[in-house]
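Hi all, long-time lurker, first post. I run a small reading group and we've been trying to get comfortable going from sequence to structure in the token notation. Rather than ask abstract questions, I figured I'd post a concrete chain and ask someone more experienced to write out its structure so we can walk through it together at our next meeting. Sequence below, copied exactly:
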Amino acid sequence: MNETVKLALGTLGLNKLRTFLTMSGIAIGVFSVIGVMTTVSALRGSIESGLSFLGADVFQFAKWPSGIQSIGQDRHKFERRRNIRLAEAQRYIRRMAGTADVISLKVFAHNGDSQATYGGRKTPDGLEFGGTNEYFCITDQFNIGLGRNFTAADVDFKRPVAIIGQDVADKLFPSESPLGKRIKAAGHAYTVIGVYGSKGSMFGRSEDSIVMVPITRFLDDFGPEGYTIGIATQAPSQEVYDATMEEGIAAMRLARGLLPGQENDFELYANDSLIAAFAKIADAVRAGAFVISGIALLAAGVGIMNIMLVSVTERTKEIGIRKAVGARRSTILAQFLVESVAISVAGGLVGIVMGVAAGNILALRLSASIVFPWNWAATGLLVCSAIGVGFGLYPAWMAASLDPVEALRHE
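-- Answer (accepted) --
Happy to help. Here is the structure in token form:
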């Protein structure tokens, strides 16, 4: 057997270009599935924690679904909806009094292209600028690192005050305290009363590049037209979470003036629903990867069979000589199967290395941890071995079945 393996591998080495091209088909198929699986595995924990941007026991109403939930849905359906106005949000708060005491309102400038300035310094493009109330820190998992939070009076009296993120503070106030300083955001002046504690990044985007002002001040400065309000509600406990959500839906329908039987004209989402939406997308990506890689591996398997059939034809006389001096059919069969499996497994190893590298590079760019999908790598090698045996068996059987006398006459 050792001699058979050496002979098979030596034969592959004599046709390096042909062997390389045949391996490439297998490598591409394995690369596609391993790359996708590595990326999904690396991002799963990061994305699930990133999707948990709402606090514990919090659900949110909005005009638009979240980015993940909106994939594959008709955008025009949401465009036709009425914006959620401040008056409706306030009616909702009144109806939920006694059921949920923590309800934050929030609205954000369009496209996230605002800038904050102080003196001769300014933040880069992409600042998240919006308005909220005193419960934003609780529902959206922010904390005050310096200064104070908004109060109900700040909101009621539309005070021109702001809380800034750590990135904004570092950029505008590199060597001084920002408290009490007047900055400009989107062309309006606000006095800094607090700095949010560092929260890090989500999906490669910093969550510390943020400026929030009282929601009433925001709508007063920029006008209510064209803006829709998000309403995040925290249930008193996990035990009453479902009941609180049901009451919240009823209160939201009444606040919006919907009649019995009318469809909800708002979206409801929470951490669990966002994670479930991501899992559904991940499953679809996996299925797509399997289909693509399956087609690629099938084509690569046909290529292996074709090359092995050509090899049998080219080496007919060699086979005849080996059988004439005593080589058994099983030895010839084993030699060609070893060649087929070697090509397939080598291509699979190359594909695994490339797929793991590409998947982790993408994951690192999105601030996810590095992983090695051992189970998928092992499955890939088993599949490659099966392809080598399955598509190499017929050419090997043909080689082993050659009549030595006819093979010796072959030119």
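A couple of things your group might point at:
The chain has a mean pLDDT of 82.
The first strand starts at residue 58 and ends at 62.
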